[in-house]
Amino acid sequence: MSQQTYLKVPFVWEEPKPLVEVPSRLDFKAANTLSYEVLLSAVAQVMGSSIDANDRKQVTESSSRQFAEQFLAESKDGFSYQDEWWQIGFNSDGKIVGFVLPAIYLDCAKDGLEEATIYYIGVLPEYRRQGFATDLLLKGTRVLQDIGVWRVFCDTDVNNNPMITTFERVGYQQHGEPYQRPL
User: Fold this and answer.
1) Rounded to the nearest 5°, which phi and psi values hold at 74?
2) What is the per-residue pLDDT across 36-46, written as a single tens digit (0 to 9) for each?
3) Rounded to an integer, what distance in angstroms lies between the CA atom of residue 46 and that of residue 98?
4) Shortest CA distance to 99 belongs to which of 117, 85, 79, 82?
5) Over the range 121-149, which residues count as b (16 or more CB within 10 Å of their CB) and which as e?
6) What pTM does this model have?
7) Alpha helix locations (H) across the chain?
């Protein structure tokens, strides 16, 4: 039996660039200043309604909560981050809109600067299609600019048109053709 795959579209943000400005319509709080349950619940909600083929497969094999727990537990496998980098965005009513989880790739530094990624980003289902993914991506990119990176390399499912549009809107460039990933 052959392994199933799906296509990911790669994007890069290459420094140096002017510092991005993060819109002020969301109030950001470091995830580590809140209970773990807050982050876990938000990640599970996003994964449970994700367009990403791998997310959908994992959720059907377990549950969105179990997959989110596993995903967060594996966040240090090949990555490094400071807990305060992971940000949760709240609207003016104090409701969680989404989150962004920037991280550094291990052993990918160049000229004293790190290579980074957005480990995961998500907007809760009820707040989608309102431009919040842009705010979240700008926040994650700014966190990475502030720590000093030479590049941010990200990818998204080839069918995730809202995220593809968000990367492009923020200034990320598609980096080559879509590539296969195991499902």
Assistant:
1) -90, 5
2) 999 999 999 99
3) 8
4) 85
5) bbbbeebbeeebbbbbbbbbbbbbbeeeb
6) 0.96
7) 36-48, 53-61, 64-73, 132-147, 161-170
